[in-house]
Write a structure and sequence with these properties.
single chain; alpha/beta; Ribose 5-phosphate Isomerase B, Chain: A; 6 helices; 5 strands; about 40% helix
């Protein structure tokens, strides 16, 4: 089980209309930090259905095409629920830095889901930084993570 992200692979990113502005800002922010980013949309503020963007991000992470994923919607619940339907995905809903670190450290999350309507953009950047920098602790947590999949 990987404990860190393979940063030679792109970051998969996506959102619905409520998260569009944050997605665009985080995409530019990640690229300025030297990360390759694959944007799965949406590409405007027009109302859309979050599963149409969460599924492609989750598939990219699940297949190993992307190192990890970043998803946004208004509450982050919709994208988290959708992404977690994928067997190889552990998407964590994060609203503060400690949660962003813990979903990596204890749950080996590979997608961070951020509620654009409830956190400041600067906090979203900090959470993504913490998510990337935190390694999975393994040990007793690996036993638990290994019990998550249904198949």
């Amino acid at each position: 089980m990987e404990t860190t992200f393979d940063l030679t692979k792109p970051v998969a990113i996506g959102s619905d209309h409520a998260g569009f502005e944050y997605k665009e800002a985080i995409k530019v922010w990640l690229e300025k930090k030297g990360y390759a980013v694959k944007d799965f949309g949406t590409f405007s503020l027009d109302s859309v259905d979050y599963p149409d963007f969460a599924h492609p991000v989750a598939t990219s992470v699940e297949t190993g095409e992307a190192s990890f994923g970043v998803l946004f919607c208004g509450s982050a619940n919709g994208v988290a629920i959708t992404a977690n339907k994928h067997q190889g995905v552990r998407a964590g809903l994060c609203w503060e830095n400690d949660v962003a670190r813990l979903v990596r450290r204890h749950n080996n999350a590979n997608i961070i889901c951020i509620p654009a309507r409830f956190v400041a953009l600067s906090l979203a950047e900090e959470m993504v930084d913490n998510f990337i920098a935190t390694e999975f602790e393994g040990g007793r947590h690996a036993n638990r993570v290994n019990k998550i999949a249904c198949s």
